[in-house]
Design goal:
Elements: E1 3-4, H1 17-26, H2 37-45, E2 63-67, E3 69-72, H3 76-87, E4 91-95, H4 117-122, H5 127-140, H6 157-175, E5 178-182, E6 185-192, E7 199-209, H7 221-228, E8 237-246, E9 257-260, H8 266-270, E10 275-276, E11 302-303, E12 306-310, H9 323-326, H10 340-346, E13 348-350, E14 357-360, E15 363-366, E16 373-376, E17 383-384, H11 397-403, H12 417-436, E18 454-456, E19 475-476, E20 481-482, H13 498-501, H14 509-514, H15 517-526, H16 532-537, E21 557-561, E22 597-600, E23 612-614, H17 623-626, H18 632-652, H19 656-660, H20 668-679
Parallel strand pairs: 1-5, 2-8, 3-4, 3-9, 4-5, 9-23
Antiparallel strand pairs: 6-7, 7-8, 10-20, 11-17, 11-19, 12-16, 12-18, 13-16, 14-15, 21-22
């Protein structure tokens, strides 16, 4: 059985008489949320705790834990990393700020799998992702229990967590591995080897409700975030200080591997390795960038999701105290979406009774029936899209330095707490808009009508598992992204860019007008494919080059991903919900389909630290490429690659960077890793990937 930190079992996290009593009270609220919650949030906005100016010395560790892999972040990528490492017989430690495994599919509430039809028809995914999908079908008796129309599989976030728990339990037994799971735990500090090349120790803090206080998940994240990173016990939490160290083993170049699978790239910020944040400068590799110089503050919007249930009779609601602040933002966005039922069924996650076919704006679905449950994740709804230095969520390196968070013992998570709180209010306001609102910021009057036949589902047994009804953690589409190591053709550091994956028509006037002559020529040389040598040597016009119709083929591919380049751009001004505010101009210029693409091993390897790997959205991608490399199947594939690579490196006595230091040429050790991935059902490339195969129409 798995070895877990206190509480001892995943299931124990959700059971107690106190929890059941509160759940019974909160399960079917007639008001928007419990009385007093809005006042608590509003008081938070005027009394945010300041970051410490001087580091508080940590207590001595309460517990030392040995492991071969330390995974920071138990999201979908972190779960995939653990899954493969456990099947390989490794001792794995995994920390997670929430108490659920799964990230997007559970604690972030985005339990509607983003997939492309061709890949889905072939089930050409990493083996663990296919297993997860099959277990959804087995659990519900059907693949799409929500009968949503955005995906072929929409389900309850709570079930996503429980399915992953089962998968990790079984992987541990099958592989004879060992899992140490630490929920409600954050990494606080790192210690390094004498030469600074390896992480030798990590200090973490686990927070549990103090005696006599409410159960976990009573407050939204913003109210406990800073406390979670404080060494000292508080009125709310009792802290356990954990020390993670390598499991003693035979000598090798590394004793263990640390995996950053956090949602924002916490460890890469804490370790201060080179990374990018926000919009990249416009270059021939990133020709659709909306900024010539780049913008570190403009990341994609984040979303607190929530679940709502259709009722047979109209309900009554209290208007939130803060609703007027956010009301000028909410919109259906387009006339063809101007229907509450359409938004409800878009990501409906449970439909016990199949209704008759309904339609709106040319889109069809099974009609909403009482008892149906929907998850909301809407750009002009509960998306919160800050984009200035005054309100950006993910602190830049300069902001971290100025606030003291990069000093030893001062790490506070690297997020702006007040922006988290605004995002929470913003999401709850969107629920009120759906059921009672009559305005529309983009379409004007006459489109929005109230529909008071829904409840916001709150309580610890509700789909989101929180007393307030919001997801335990926001869905973050973009975090910090490492800059890989320099290689031939990448003198400033490796990065997957727009030009590597996009299907854009680069003959459009926008590119001729916004790139310099040399950049425009370099763009077409990079797109030339089999004509590259001729494009370099000849003086022919760039537009006469026959562009390749495939993604860049990376010799060090270890995983796969394909999805639209999908943007939820930041807003131009602060605050993002200000009346008349607009999203970043030209941010959607790079939006559109992409080719089936690889995840290169170089994108997982940061500079300077040799035993740190990155899994999840913080791999080395540009801002535009990251908009495609953020979906569920990608997260699993990159996690599987990280877990397998770490095991391979420990077994073979090599460092991951040694596998790719000969790039662009491959080497025997790298080929052995890639063949192992194929044999184990974790493909490093799509079928028929070759420089000679230019036919990918079926995949678009």
């Amino acid at each position: 059985m798995p070895r877990y930190a206190q509480p001892s079992r995943f299931a124990d996290l959700l059971t107690s008489n106190t929890i059941l009593t509160l759940t019974q009270i909160m399960r079917r609220p007639q008001r928007l949320w419990p009385r007093g919650w809005a006042a608590i949030t509003l008081s938070l906005m005027t009394a945010l705790p300041a970051l410490p100016a001087i580091a508080i010395p940590p207590r001595s560790p309460d517990q030392t834990v040995e492991c071969e892999l330390l995974i920071a972040g138990g999201g979908f990528a972190g779960a995939a990393t653990a899954y493969e490492a456990l099947l390989s017989g490794r001792t794995v430690c995994m920390t997670e700020i929430t108490d659920w495994v799964g990230g997007q599919v559970s604690s972030q509430g985005v339990s509607a799998l983003d997939e492309r039809s061709r890949q889905r028809s072939l089930l050409f995914y990493a083996r663990g992702y296919n297993e997860f999908r099959q277990r959804i079908a087995d659990h519900y008796g059907r693949q799409n229990p929500g009968e949503c129309w955005v995906s072929a599989s929409c389900f309850l976030p709570r079930d996503g967590h429980e399915i992953l728990v089962e998968m990790l339990d079984e992987a541990e037994k099958e592989g004879d591995g060992e899992l140490h799971w630490f929920p409600a735990t954050v990494i606080k500090d790192l210690d390094y080897s004498a030469d600074g090349r390896q992480i030798e120790r990590a200090i973490a803090i686990q927070h549990n409700p103090a005696p006599g206080t409410p159960p976990r998940n009573t407050e939204p994240l913003s109210q406990i975030f800073t406390d979670a990173y404080d060494y000292q016990d508080s009125e709310r939490f009792t802290k356990t200080i954990l020390e993670f160290v390598p499991l003693p083993r035979a000598s090798g170049p590394a004793d263990w591997y640390v995996i950053d699978a956090t949602e924002t790239g916490e460890l890469i910020a804490l370790a201060d390795v080179p990374y990018q944040l926000g919009i990249d400068p416009r270059t021939h590799r990133e020709p659709s960038s909306s900024s010539v110089t780049g913008d570190r503050y403009c990341t994609q919007g984040f979303t607190y999701t929530f679940a709502m249930e259709k009722q047979a009779e109209p309900q009554t609601y209290d208007i939130p105290e803060f609703y007027a602040r956010y009301e000028p933002y909410y919109s259906y966005e387009q006339e063809r979406f101007a229907s509450v039922d359409l938004l409800f069924t878009y990501r409906r996650i449970l439909s016990p009774t199949t209704g008759p076919i309904d339609r709106f704006g040319g889109i069809g679905w099974t009609a909403v029936t009482p008892g149906d449950i929907s998850m909301q994740n809407w750009t002009w709804g509960n998306d919160y899209r800050p984009g200035t230095a005054q309100d950006n969520l993910i602190y830049t390196r300069d902001q971290l330095q100025d606030s003291g968070q990069l000093g030893s013992g001062n790490w506070q998570g690297g997020l702006r707490q007040s922006t988290l709180a605004r995002g929470e209010e913003h999401a709850l306001g969107f629920f009120y808009w759906l059921v009672a609102g009559t305005t529309d910021s983009q379409l004007g009057d006459g489109f929005k009508e109230p529909d008071p036949t829904h409840d916001l589902l709150t309580g610890l047994d509700a789909p989101m598992g929180t007393m307030h009804g919001l997801s335990k953690y926001p869905y973050l589409r973009e975090g910090r992204r490492i800059i890989g190591r320099p290689y031939l053709g990448y003198p400033d550091g490796f990065m997957v860019t727009e030009l590597d994956i996009s299907t854009k028509d680069y003959t459009a006037d926008y590119y001729r007008e916004n790139l310099t002559d040399s950049e425009y020529r370099d763009l077409w040389v990079a797109l030339a494919g089999l004509e590259t040598i001729d494009a370099i040597q000849s003086d022919r016009p760039s537009e006469t080059v026959t562009r390749r119709t495939r993604s860049t083929i990376f010799p060090d591919g270890v995983g796969i991903s394909v999805y639209y380049i999908d943007f939820h751009p930041c807003m131009n001004e602060s605050p993002p919900y200000a009346p008349g505010n607009t999203e970043r101009q030209n941010a959607r210029q790079g939006e559109g389909p992409s080719y089936p693409a690889q995840i290169p091993l170089r994108a997982l390897i940061p500079q300077r630290l040799d035993n740190l790997l990155v899994a999840g959205k913080s791999i080395a991608t540009s801002h535009v490429a990251a908009a495609a490399y953020r979906i569920h199947s990608f997260e699993w594939s990159v996690g599987a690659a990280a877990g397998t690579t770490a095991d391979f490196a420990l077994s073979e006595g090599v460092m991951p960077y040694e596998l790719v230091e000969t790039m662009p040429r491959s080497n025997p050790a790298l080929r052995r890793l890639q063949e192992r991935l194929r044999q184990e059902g974790n493909p490093p490339e799509f079928p028929n990937t070759s420089i000679f195969n230019e036919d990918w129409e079926a995949w678009k």
